[in-house]
Amino acid sequence: MTFLGPVMIDVDGFELSDDDRILLKNPLVGGVILFTRNFDSPQQVQLLINEIKSLRDPQLLIAIDHEGGRVQRFKEPFTIIPALNTLGIKHDSDPDSALKHAELFGWLTSIELLSFNIDFSFTPVLDVDYGLSDVIGDRAFHQNPNVIAKLAAAYIDGMHRAGMSATGKHFPGHGGVTADSHTDIPIDNRTLDTLLKSDIIPFEKLVPNHLDGIMPAHVIYEKINKAPAGFSPYWLKEILRTQLKFDGVIFSDDLNMKGASCISDSYAERAKAALEAGCDMVLVCNNRNGAAEVLENLRYTVTNESHLQLLKMRKEDVTRQNRDNLIQTEEWKQAVSIISEYQ
């Protein structure tokens, strides 16, 4: 059996270069994450995705960060999705409508991506918005973790109805620190008891029936463990796997982020540390040299269990209608109309 590798990388532009093709054929690669720089037109991005899919068997997973609001990589003609906190604001005045609309947000975002054969988006954000973290902010549904769990459950129901897997982030919670893990090494001084009664609640409630994947935070919870959560066997194996009984895919956050730099200057060592801590797949983005270093130097054997979990992120029984047919459906038109009210 040929396994999906444990590394997800990016590509440079609108089409694959020879260098891209060489890297994507490396057996350690299991997926590709797309960015805004990869989208010029619907026709172009479809050709790009088709070529990526043609390179390997099993096909590489294709992912994207498509949350809505500030983090939506592909814009027009994709529907512009408002930030998730607009659903939280709606919930404060009209909970029933907010939950119905959350399901539509999840469905519409997913069905449009699936129409281009993109396998999944790294969404939803399950962080609590304490008003501290600018990098989280309006990406979070709400300030109340129980409301977050309700809205996220409805949102994921919409994703699943479309046929897309859901990845909650950033476990156990990035909202309690001011520092941005893209540019800093955040340290959260709260206790485990405090986190269990707050930030971990959405993850705990959604693990049983909703979350297919989880992405841990590059945050050090100093009173609990000295390693960032994504490099910590304590967080990933003891808390997430054993205590919360999560049996889906664990994706690292981008190893190119500053929050990962405390592990090592070596990208291969960062990747090894994350995988040995319990991640199934590590992301190396926006740093071609770092990705090449990982693929050249990482020594890691993928388990059959991890491979099968990764395959589940691409739901094979989904009918992926093309965009031209999708936008003619009444369901799509109604969803766009409702979501436009949030703009």
Structural commentary:
The chain starts with 6 loop residues before the first strand and ends with a helix. It is globular, with a radius of gyration of 19 Å. It is α/β, with parallel strands linked by helices. It has a single domain (12-340), classed as TIM Barrel. The chain has 13 helices and twelve strands. An eight-stranded parallel beta sheet has the order 6-3-2-1-12-11-9-7. Helix 4 (95-114) packs across helix 13. Helix content is 39%, strand content 13%. The model has no long low-confidence stretch (mean pLDDT 93). The chain has helices at 18-24, 42-54, 85-93, 95-114, 145-162, 192-196, 200-206, 233-243, 267-277, 288-297, 304-312, 323-326, 330-340, and strands at 7-9, 29-34, 61-64, 66-68, 71-72, 120-121, 167-171, 187-188, 213-216, 220-221, 249-254, 281-284.
- CATH architect. name: Alpha-Beta Barrel
Structural class: alpha/beta
Provide mean pLDDT, rounded.
93
Total beta strands:
12
Strand order of the largest sheet: 6-3-2-1-12-11-9-7
By DSSP (H or I, 4+ residues per run), the number of helices equals 13
Q: Taking Cα atoms only, what radius of gyration do you get, to the nearest Å?
A: 19 Å
Kindly give the count of domains. Answer: 1
CATH class: Alpha Beta
Shape annotation = globular
What is the helix fraction of residues, given as a range?
25-40%
| Largest sheet properties | 8 strands, parallel
Q: Ends: how far apart?
A: 48 Å
CATH topology: TIM Barrel
CATH superfamily: Glycoside hydrolase, family 3, N-terminal domain
Order of helices and strands: EHEHEEEHHEHEEHHEEHEHEHHHH
How much strand content do the residues show?
A: 5-15%
Low-pLDDT runs of 5+ residues are: none
